[in-house]
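pasting for ref
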Amino acid sequence: QGKQKKARKYAVMKRMISLRDERIKEKDRAKAPVKKKEDPSAIKEREVPQHPSCLFFQYNTQLGPPYHILVDTNFINFSIKAKLDLVLSMMDCLYAKCIPCITDCVMGEIEKLGQKYRVALRIAKDPRFERLPCMHKGTYADDCLVQRVTQHKCYIVATVDKELKRRIRKIPGVPIMYISRHR
């Protein structure tokens, strides 16, 4: 046995009076929407905002030799495992002078790793590396690198971390350098 269709009985549902009905007092009536004059200088909501030219490598004058490369902790560790000289391999990759940059957060992460990673710490303290100070709390390097790259589009990010690469790919105009197959 199927369900019976329940139809609404006539005049059971209350009828609604529209707010523009003549029977409603003048003060309670809904006002007709007033059309505003369009301002030609105002930003239109339907228009897609134009991206700055620094997002396109062809026009980005900030991103040129000598390249400033933000180095992540795991990039240094993987370069040691692959027996690569960081600065030379960066120059081989880009065919130009490279200035590796290390933030205070990355240095803090390497120092926290302890004695096992003392070679990485010695590489990070190399005088060829430029030291960048951090003004925020905490020593989480991934957030620090993403924040710095978002503010300044003049860096290339060197990392092997998949999660960090995924986050940086969402920021347009930021190149990523990584180690694969010992190169």
